[in-house]
Write a structure and sequence with these properties.
heterodimer; A: alpha/beta; D-Maltodextrin-Binding Protein, domain 2; 2 domains; 7-stranded mixed beta sheet; B: 311 residues; MetI-like fold; 74% helix
Chain lengths: 441, 311
């Protein structure tokens, strides 16, 4: 008996269902069940952008539509993290992939290993004027698998520090030029939070803790990497947490909430509200929340996430959004051309994207005077060089199980539900379980 | 065993009929059953058997075929995994938290709605309406209610001087919070079953008992509750199974957090199978959960059998 592959099974099952459906169902149901594409000029694009990112992405898509009226672009936005990659994988396995999709750089390698992505030929890219030397080198290199390109980086998105300029002014934390004084040691950092707290009468800073595992992980990883700490090695097969360094960072993070400088039980939305309401002078999150602060019309600025431990070697947790082409059920040159046209259009509109906070990967724009004039966005452009991507592993990457496992444990430290040592043990146990599990890919 | 009892009789009479007629009946019967049976075999039995086979292999979602043979490796891993035991406990804890209030509360609400003289339709509608909402809508409503700092519940309780816990953010409170949401959402279904059961009870029983001097409380205890025994069994079985199946609320409202405190067994199966691509391991987890549900169902089945003998 020849082994039945899952793809064949899915295709067969979908075919059978479509056959049943053809009899009585309306067209959308049938088209939803059949494989491949029907309309000649269609282009399906999936992304994971909500909030301000979603608004800007829609502007860019409208820009593409205006320039390419003949292409019937349909964009789908899905909830980010595991749900997005699960759906993307299943759609591709079921031969119903989007033509172009967004993927985090740290998730893209797992997709490549699962044979779910099309290799992007440099010659095809060159036809649209995209060459590796025009893209951020760190992101481009990090996106290569065995020297082959599968992803075009759109940006680097580091964890950054937002600060309320009014509060910092009153707290005496700004220099004569209105710039934030450097917070380059745990003592200076704590001191600044205390001064800000004295002004707000509520909190010094705020970071999302509850119902959000990625944010606690990003904060921890930034400081832990500054100490030179690593979490995984050997493509995720080994857990190499440095207990002393991790405990040092966790203890410091707990001291912030325990002393009341940071709220200990606040979720993502609550942390934004606390900062925009002026109940905290500092806010720590990815730079994408810039749109929220602008909408709130509050006095704020942004800068690099504080370098407390790194000295001359800066490090900050980051990832990159990349554009990928999922494995297509059949080869179609015209479709590939439409896909590349969209990718180029996204890069060309890097200005719109950069306004949303992201550090653009498209160097023709990043090296321009226009970008340098864009503040506060260009304040933290250096973060792209110190970017620390989540360690490779089949269960790792942005919004992955790895971040859920580590972030959950770190959140219990921030919430003062567990001591750093206990949380670290929990993190180690759960990561060891994942690392010793044979990769399903 | 008393095989001479009534249930066998109709079949005995069928057996005396000519062989040919039974065969002629067989074909149309199969024809009528076919639409259901084919779908049932294709989408329930077939995948379940495939899952059973898969549970003995290191099957990956993204690799063709079953993968390498694992024997009982997946089962051994599951039984040694603290994730499995904790999520199984979360599912059971959720069942305890929801099943009992959902049975008791729906009974009380049905009793009250049945006694209301005016505007009975309003109460029926009010208690049943949440049930028709999709889980995502219910989740969004309750996420808003539970939001710390700004939420309806915290603001409301704060006005009467009660400090509310962090409903979804505190690992100890997250599960009860999901329980409250679920009770609000699904109490309507049990409520309707009880309401139907209440209307089945002959009114003359109440009239006769009140002539004998029974008060309302005594009537409830000695007439209503015993007469509703079968409804209660039905409600309890359906409720326990529905609670064991919990997934949506947790997936949407807490994603299994905080710190995995609300990850149900089905969410673990989903995480392992679709997110981690480990379909073989996920199949083994499902089989273990199937055994638990089978055991629960067997207990209820025996209770029902005993009850039917008594009636």
């Amino acid at each position: 008996m020849t082994p039945l592959s899952r793809r064949t099974l899915l295709r067969g099952a979908l075919g059978a269902a479509a056959g049943l459906g053809l009899a009585g169902c309306s067209a959308p149901v049938v088209s939803g069940l059949s494989t491949g594409h029907e309309k000649p000029d269609s282009l399906d694009y999936w992304n994971l952008f909500g909030g301000g990112d979603g608004v800007r992405m829609n502007q860019m898509l409208d820009g593409f539509r205006a320039a390419n009226p003949r292409i019937d672009l349909s964009a789908v936005t899905l909830a980010w993290g595991n749900p997005y990659y699960t759906k993307l994988s299943l759609a591709t396995l079921g031969d119903k992939p989007p033509d172009v999709a967004i993927s985090h750089l740290t998730r893209m390698k797992t997709l490549v290993a699962s044979d779910l992505l099309e290799e992007i030929q440099l010659a095809d890219l060159a036809r649209y004027g995209i060459t590796p030397d025009k893209l951020d080198n760190t992101a481009w290199q990090a996106g290569l698998v065995d020297g082959k390109a599968y992803a075009i980086p759109l940006d680097t998105h580091p964890f950054v520090m937002f600060y309320n300029t009014d509060i910092c002014q009153k707290a005496g934390l700004l220099d004569a030029g209105g710039q934030l004084l450097p917070l380059d040691s745990p003592e200076k950092f704590t001191d600044a939070m205390q001064k800000a707290k004295a002004v707000t009468k509520a909190y010094g800073g705020v970071v999302s803790v509850n119902g959000d595992t990625s944010t606690p992980w990003r904060m921890f990883q930034s400081w832990y990497s500054q100490l030179g700490g690593e979490v995984l090695a050997d493509d995720g097969k080994k857990v190499v947490i440095d207990d002393a360094k991790a405990t040092q960072v966790l203890t410091f993070m707990q001291s912030l909430t325990k002393s009341g400088l940071f709220p200990a039980d606040i979720d993502y939305a609550g942390s934004i509200a606390t900062f925009t309401n002026g109940q905290a002078g500092f806010y720590f999150q990815g730079e994408w929340e810039i749109s929220t602060m602008q909408t709130a019309k509050m006095p704020f600025s942004m800068t690099l996430f504080p370098n407390l431990y790194g000295g001359s070697k800066y490090a900050v947790q980051a990832d990159s959004h990349t554009l990928i082409i999922p494995k297509q059920p059949n080869v179609d040159a015209a479709r590939l051309d439409r896909s590349l046209r969209l990718i180029k259009s996204m890069l060309d509109q890097s200005k719109t994207w950069a306004e949303g906070g992201h550090v653009p990967a498209w160097l023709p724009f990043r090296d321009s005077a226009e970008y340098k004039a864009l503040t506060p966005q260009s304040n933290y452009a250096a973060a792209a060089e110190g970017a620390v991507y989540d360690p490779p592993g089949w269960y790792s990457g942005s919004g992955s199980n790895f971040e859920i496992v580590t972030g959950s444990a770190i959140a219990t430290v921030l919430g003062d539900q567990q001591a750093p040592a206990t949380a670290l043990q929990q993190m180690r146990d759960q990561l060891t379980h994942l690392s010793t599990t044979a990769s399903p890919i | 065993m008393s095989t001479t009892e009534t249930p066998v009789r109709p079949r005995a009479s069928a057996a005396t009929e000519p062989q040919s007629r039974r065969e002629r009946q067989g074909l149309p019967a199969a024809g009528f059953l076919a639409p259901f049976l084919i779908l049932y075999l294709a989408f329930i039995i077939g995948p379940a058997l495939y899952g059973f086979v898969m549970s003995f292999f290191d099957t990956s979602l993204v690799r063709p075929g079953l993968g390498s043979f694992a024997g009982f490796g997946n089962y051994a891993e599951a039984l040694q995994s603290s994730d499995f035991w904790s999520s199984l406990w979360h599912t059971i804890w959720f069942t305890i938290l929801t099943a009992i209030p959902l049975i008791v509360l729906s009974f009380v609400l049905a009793l009250l709605a049945d006694r209301v003289k005016h505007g009975r339709w309003f109460f029926r509608l009010a208690f049943f309406t949440p049930y028709i909402l999709p889980s995502a809508v219910v989740a969004l409503i309750w996420i808003f209610i539970y939001t710390p700092g700004l939420g309806l519940l915290e603001t409301g309780l704060g006005k009467i001087g009660i400090t509310s816990p962090n409903w979804l953010g505190d690992p100890n409170w997250a599960m009860p919070s999901l329980g409250i949401t679920t009770i609000w959402w699904t109490v309507g279904f049990n409520f309707v079953l009880y309401l139907a059961g209440l209307q089945e009870i002959p009114r003359d029983l109440y009239e006769a008992s009140s002539m004998d001097g029974a008060g309302p409380w005594q009537q409830i205890r000695s007439i209503t509750i015993p007469m509703l025994a079968r409804t209660t069994t039905l409600v309890a079985v359906l409720q326990v199974i529905a609670s064991l199946k919990v997934f949506d609320q947790m997936y949407i409202m807490t994603s299994g957090g905080p710190n995995f405190a609300t990850r149900s067994i089905l969410e673990l199966v989903y995480d392992e199978g679709f997110t981690n691509f480990r379909t073989g391991y996920a199949a083994a987890l499902s089989m273990l959960f199937f055994i638990v549900v089978l055991a629960v169902s067997a207990v209820w089945f025996m209770l029902v059998r005993r009850q039917e003998k008594e009636v």
